[in-house]
Write a structure and sequence with these properties.
- The chain is mainly alpha-helical.
- It contains 23 helices and 6 strands.
- Strands 2-1-3-5-4-6 form a 6-stranded mixed beta sheet, with helices on both faces.
- The chain is globular, with a radius of gyration of 24 Å.
């Protein structure tokens, strides 16, 4: 069975119209989302502080290091390669727009590949066009690109791996782009290891053991090399961004308990239900399919299952995106190779899955996440302005990215993405000792802190004086807290910081409000 000719895939006349419809639908959704967010915030902004972490890491790479502070190694980025793609013109507006540009490309490619997958399905022309237009929106392609993170690029690479595996199994052709996508995918998101290695396993099961071994080595060696690089810097082989978020370094629970807890959290969310349903559907279809088509679907199902077991669901629905899109696209791609009953049922299954996906992803996107740009602008961006323009000293924060990017002063990340020491103390026990941040701040000559008291009030040292609170007023997206407390670290910094805060307060935009605290405030 060929992926060329009448199959309507990869450059064939039948595949092109649906690919174009899919790309245009994805781009239109992305443009509409950006416009809505701009009108809400009044400025262009990303909806996640994490984008700026990667921009700050890119600055560090260009400067010859690896971290957000000069001379202090840190693995604050969740991706190996994404900071490299953001390294042009560090600290400038050009660099700031690079995540937007890469995600514009990613959303178009994802939409086009979805359309090409549909060209294999048993669809009438009108149904094919409708699904090609509906799918990118229902599958949250614009919403994931909107985050500005690497997840959209990872989804595009996952789709390329899927297409490459299909061709390898059906035509016995292993293309260069399949190998490239399999190797690159884990370097954008480590979750890509599952699909890439399972694809190598599928090649081995079809009699190409030597090729499978080389592919597996090509997938694993760069990841291991990156871990070795981190260790050479005195860091954990697992990036700090992963350790800080998922808590693998936390004590008090075994590996089995952590995996079980992660599965329960994943299954508690609607996107987790959706991914689980697609895994089950793929397994059922694999049992009813013939030969290599069944193996293809089995690979996709096990990759989706691996995500449910060890990866995350949620936080702007970006982590599970690649698995959902790849599974549903794989079902569409393989539907023509199934039995007559399954081929006949494919259109209804695809429409139902798109409706379910839209129900899982879109409500929170349009009612909550679209407000995140306003949130970042009125909170993290204003904190960054104060640190760069009004009180230019080393600072401790709990949200690293916006304050660290394009900031020549040192930034201590109390959450631990950019500071292994802070992460170790925070995760050492359920309740770290009072004042635990003070020694870390002293070691880095930190002069002020801007933190959520709800998270880190007990971490403050005895010589940390709370001087003001920054309030986020009005509607907003998900945020750790709507109030940030500004501390002077050390009595010698109280007077100059108060002066800086007096100059800063009148410059705040509407929706952000600074209230000075009395000098006797505890």
């Amino acid at each position: 069975m060929s992926d060329t000719g009448a199959s309507g895939t990869f450059g064939t006349p039948r595949g092109r119209p649906l690919a174009l419809v899919g790309a245009l639908a994805a781009l239109a959704g992305f443009a509409a989302l950006q416009l809505a967010a701009f009108l809400i915030a009044g400025v262009f902004e990303y909806p996640l502080d994490d984008v700026y972490i990667h921009l700050a890491m890119a600055e560090g790479i260009v400067a010859g290091g690896y971290g957000v502070n000069p001379g202090e190694p840190a693995s604050a980025a969740s991706s190996v390669l994404y900071p490299v793609l953001l390294a042009a013109a560090p600290g400038t507006w050009v660099q700031r727009l690079l995540p937007l540009g890469w995600n514009l490309l990613a959303v178009a490619v994802c939409g086009a590949l979805w359309g090409r997958a549909l060209s294999r399905a048993n669809l009438a022309a009108a149904r094919g066009v409708a699904l090609a237009a509906l799918g990118p929106l229902a599958l949250n392609m614009p919403g994931v690109a909107f985050t500005g993170m690497e997840n959209g690029l990872h989804t595009a690479l996952s789709l390329a791996v899927m297409f490459g595996l299909w061709r390898a199994l059906q035509d016995n052709r292993v293309t260069w782009w399949f190998v490239a996508a399999a190797v690159l995918s884990p370097l954008f998101r480590f979750e890509g290891l599952a699909l890439s290695l399972l694809s190598a396993g599928a090649l081995a099961l079809t009699g190409r053991s030597r090729l499978a071994l080389w592919l597996a080595a090509g997938v694993v060696v760069p990841v291991l090399a990156f871990g070795g690089f981190l260790m050479s810097l005195g860091l954990s082989p697992v990036p700090g961004s992963i350790l800080a978020r998922v808590g693998f370094a936390a004590t008090g629970s075994g590996a089995a308990d952590r995996v079980f807890g992660q599965v329960l959290r994943n299954l508690a969310a609607p996107p987790g239900w959706l991914l689980s349903a697609l895994v089950v559907l793929s397994l059922v279809l694999a049992l009813g399919a013939r030969g290599r088509t069944g193996l293809f679907l089995l690979v996709l199902a096990v990759a989706g299952m691996a995500h449910l077991l060890v990866a995350q669901i949620g936080w702007m629905h970006r982590h599970e995106h690649y698995a959902v899109v790849t599974l549903l696209s794989g079902i569409a791609l393989s539907s023509a190779a199934m039995g007559s009953r399954l081929r006949a049922a494919a259109p209804a299954l695809l429409f139902a899955a798109c409706v379910a996906s839209g129900a899982a992803f879109l409500p929170r996107l349009v009612t909550s996440y679209v407000w995140n740009t306003r949130t970042i602008h009125l909170q993290q961006t204003q904190m960054a302005r104060f640190a760069r323009e009004f009180f230019q000293v080393s600072v401790a924060v709990n949200d690293l990215g916006r304050v660290a990017w394009s900031n020549p002063s040192r930034v201590l990340d109390l959450w631990g993405l950019g500071s292994a020491e802070a992460r170790a103390v925070r995760q050492a026990s359920a309740e770290p000792p009072a004042g635990w941040a003070a020694p870390l701040a002293a070691a880095q000559d930190v002069r002020m802190a801007m933190i959520y008291d709800a998270w880190f009030a007990t971490a403050a040292g005895p010589d940390w004086a709370p001087l003001a609170k920054l309030y986020l007023d009005g509607p907003h997206g998900p945020v750790g807290d709507t109030v940030v407390t500004f501390y002077a670290v050390g009595t010698e910094n109280v007077v100059p910081m108060r002066t800086a805060l007096d100059a800063f307060a009148p410059t705040l935009p509407a929706g952000a409000r600074l209230e000075r605290l009395p000098e006797s405030a505890p």
